[in-house]
Amino acid sequence: MAKLPILEFPDERLRTIATPVEAVDDEVRQLVDDMLETMYDARGIGLAATQVDVHRRVIVMDVSDDQSRPLVMINPEFTPIGDEREPMQEGCLSIPEYYAEVPRALKVHLKALGRDGQPYEMEAEGLLAHCIQHEYDHLEGVLFVDYLSVLKRDRVMKKMQKRHRQMQPA
């Protein structure tokens, strides 16, 4: 396995819409394994392939407290269950050190392929439902800051640009 570099906002590659995976083969399984290693190493709970500059419809996630329940979603699709929405504070590995409340569907129905290429369906609620929607947005080129006011989004962009300047060698 290999740890992958994570793109950071405002990198335009984060706006790329991911393409479907045609076949779950060894290359896709290796991507999944590398993404899980990257996500765990970065102490995240979800990661979309777009965030590691691979523009395919692949998401990995683990919302368990002990990192014991990895979830793989290849070509995911979800539909909200009911109209109930709930704001929850979100962060993002592509926007480190920034958090904001984003309202999302409280429950969702998910259809996806697993790491083995087999289709599965599940219902999710709470943190898992929020995370599915957040990571799915990445596959569509959408970031959680897009749900904020223009003023707040601009403030985050300036903060991230400053962060990138400070990280550049002198």
UniProtKB/TrEMBL annotation:
HAMAP family: Pep_deformylase (MF_00163). It catalyses: N-terminal N-formyl-L-methionyl-[peptide] + H2O = N-terminal L-methionyl-[peptide] + formate. Pfam families: Pep_deformylase. Belongs to the polypeptide deformylase family. SUPFAM superfamilies: Peptide deformylase. Its cofactor is Fe(2+). Transmembrane segments: none annotated. Fe cation binds at C92, H134, H138. Its EC number is 3.5.1.88. Gene3D superfamilies: Peptide deformylase. GO terms for molecular function: peptide deformylase activity. NCBIfam families: pept_deformyl (TIGR00079), PRK00150.1-3 (NF001159). Binds 1 Fe(2+) ion. Removes the formyl group from the N-terminal Met of newly synthesized proteins. Requires at least a dipeptide for an efficient rate of reaction. N-terminal L-methionine is a prerequisite for activity but the enzyme has broad specificity at other positions. The keyword Protein biosynthesis applies. The gene is def. This is Peptide deformylase. The lineage of its organism: Bacteria, Pseudomonadati, Pseudomonadota, Gammaproteobacteria, Oceanospirillales. The active site is at E135. It comes from Halomonas rhizosphaerae. Keywords: Hydrolase, Iron, Metal-binding, Protein biosynthesis.
